[in-house]
Amino acid sequence: MTSQQTKVMFIYGTRPETIKLAPVIKELNNDNNFQTIVTVTGQHRQMLDQAMDVFGLQADYDLNVMQENQTLSGLSQRILAGLSDIFADCRPDIVLVQGDTTSVLIGALSAFYHGVKVGHVEAGLRTADKRNPFPEEINRRLAGVIADLHFAPTAAARGNLVREGIDPSTIFITGNSQIDALLSVVDPNLNLPAEVAPRPGRRTILMTTHRRENLDGALTEIYRAVKKALADFPDVDVIFPMHLNPKVRSVVMEELQLSDRVRLLDPFDYRTMANVMARSYLVLTDSGGLQEEAPSLGVPVLVTRTNTERPEGIAAGTARLAGTTEAGVSAALNELLGNADTYRRMSQAVNPYGDGKASFRIRKALRYILGLDQSKPEEYI
Per-domain residue ranges for the chain? Predict the structure, then answer.
């Protein structure tokens, strides 16, 4: 065992990255062989800070790059420039990035430029369509090319990497650390504020939308399908924590502001979101993380996208692609709200994404690579 700690820098900038990396940071902090360094880009300032507070995280470095109406090219330039000084200052041994954001791609690229090894958490997710989701599909593919270690959540994700020519010895199947985070905050005894709590005796749809590719007309279609479902099912309510993107909010307000059974709210902190989800009847979303979380809670997911990088949930029956047209989303909602057998099958399907031990496996994989452990961690199946 080496007497010198390995410096592991985490680079992230959004709420989902924070949530999925928080349990990994905690796991490494409990191992004296590692020193963790937290670098946040501030890509999504307010929602990032919410999640940092929930998990008690503090940044060692904060680029604070967010600007109003920021472009992808401008964001990338600011992150790359800011990280250069940080690498020179702290000289990490390895960088860990998570998922598919601009912070992931530029964090991995900057580490490569500085000769630092990269570990990619949630590696290997693919839709096979480089423009959908945009820009996430390309971000994660390019991060995978740069990465030296690949922490794949499922066997299918590992298969994607192997087909792309990644050395199998660098891939570890860990499960998804999102499940670790989720299980740490869900509490059936938590008292939720009345304004966010699902109402007794009502069936609640928890809805989120934020995808760039849905901004061009698809959001309107989705929201009109929701209004139709509310008309057809009088016992159904909608809780909608709106994304902060003003382009999303303008469509939301145009289509749903006047509905008295849709609660339009600001984004929840992660603990509130997880516990509202646990008490909801179903989730309607274009998010990636919710496709993993809701099945862990026995809550069916309708995905308002035309494809998904998480096909395991579709195959397991915990999630269903609803598309982005009014007709498609309406049909999916009608089936799930109106057919008890369909709902029962989806709510009782086995979650394929994790068992709450992904962070432990990532730490064990790092120990193995560093020669601290003699055997690879047992893989998630």
Answer: 6-176+354-369, 203-348
For residue 267, say if its preceding peptide bond is cis, omega within 30 degrees of 0. Answer: no
Do 203-348 and 6-176+354-369 fall under one CATH topology? yes
Q: What is the mean pLDDT of residues 280-293?
A: 95
From first CA to last CA, the distance across the chain in angstroms is 30
Stretch 101-128: mean pLDDT: 97
Q: Which amino acid is at 278?
A: A
Model pTM?
A: 0.90
Long-range Cβ contact pairs of 196-199 (< 8 A, separation 24 or more): 196/239, 196/263, 196/265, 196/268, 196/272, 196/276, 197/276, 197/279, 198/237, 198/239, 198/276, 198/279, 198/280, 198/281, 199/237
List residues with catalytic annotation. 100, 122, 136, 210, 212, 243
In CATH terms, the fold of domain 6-176+354-369 is Rossmann fold (3.40.50)
E strand or H helix at 33, and its extent?
A: none
User: In angstroms, rounded to a whole number, what is the distance separating the alpha carbons of residues 314 and 64?
Assistant: 37
Containing 374, the helix (H) or strand (E) segment is: none
- Does the bond joining 193 to the residue before it have cis omega, within 30 degrees of 0? no
Average pLDDT over residues 7-23: 97
Give the model's confidence band at 2: pLDDT under 50 very low, under 70 low, under 90 confident, else very high.
very low
Q: Which CATH superfamily is domain 203-348 in?
A: Glycogen Phosphorylase B; (3.40.50.2000)
